[in-house]
Amino acid sequence: MKTLLTQLSIATALLGIVAPAYSASISFRPAGQQLDSDPMNDLGVSVGQQFTFFLSIDTTGLSSNLKSFTYRITRDNTEILLEVATITPEADALFTRNAISDIPTPPSLTVGTVLYEIKPGETFAPDSQLDFATATYVVQPGLVNDGLADYQIELIEAIDEQDNNITSQFVTSQTLDLQPVPEGSSTLGFLALGTLSAASTLKRKLKPSQKDKTTVLN
User: Fold this and answer.
1) Angle, vertex CA 206, rays to CA 203 and CA 210, nearest 5
2) 87, 131 Cβ separation under 8 angstroms
3) Helix count (H) and strand count (E) of the chain?
4) Is Signal there in the keyword field (predicted)?
5) How far apart are CA 148 and CA 12, in angstroms?
6) How far, in Å, CA of 205 to CA of 39, rounded?
């Protein structure tokens, strides 16, 4: 399955020159950068290192409020192991979160699916951006530069307040390959940008934040 994820990611990159350009998206930071010849982005890390992904939803270019979205995270437990995942206070103030599944998939993947639904009286308008979760991982001894996807987010479904399926208006996936770097190297210099921008950017007023909630699905 990991090979299939990689093949789909490469095919998407190769077809990108003819695909429609969308502004709305689901994504994570750090996005990494190309460190080798394949089209997939890479992130240089070291065994034992701890790092954090920031998961974001962006409704730029949509014409109606977002009512719900369902996403899937696929991760390779051989190379990274989830330590803690936290729903941001901003997201918790707006959305109800429902964990649909968290399924181990041989030989080493885990696939988690999560649904976010807008709370009564709240709205998530077009042209808004929100960091809706953070997920902290520890790099495992199985880390290897195999050219295969180690972390992927996919938008499965997005519904607007008129109950229209608007998934096709989003960039729906992002994939990352983790790679070992020489011992003593500065592996996460470019992670600082992601860390500094951990706070959500929301172009609307939010209610007072509620307490963080923790999950195991990101």
Assistant:
1) 140
2) no
3) 3, 12
4) yes
5) 14
6) 39
DSSP track, 38-96:
SSSEEEEE-TT-EEEEEEEEE-TT-SS-EEEEEEEEEEETTTEEEEEEEE-HHHHHHEE
Q: Is the pLDDT of residue 165 over 50?
A: yes
Least trusted range by pLDDT, from 25-34, 44-53, 100-109, 152-161: 100-109
Close Cβ partners of 181 (under 8 Å, ≥ 6 residues apart): 44, 45, 46, 187
The alpha carbon of residue 169 and the mean position of all alpha carbons in its chain are separated, in whole angstroms, by: 17
DSSP 143: -
Q: What are the extents of the domains in the chain?
A: 2-215
φ/ψ of 89, rounded to 5, equals -60, -35
Query: pLDDT: is 25 or 185 the higher one?
Result: 25
Residue whose C-alpha is closest to residue 214's, from 55, 111, 70, 83 = 83
What is the pLDDT at residue 150?
Answer: 96
User: Residues, the chain, total?
Assistant: 218
Q: How far, in Å, CA of 6 to CA of 11, rounded?
A: 9
Amino acid symbol at 129: Q
Cβ atoms of 86 and 50 within 8 Å: the answer is no
| CATH 2.40.50.100 describes domain 2-215 | no
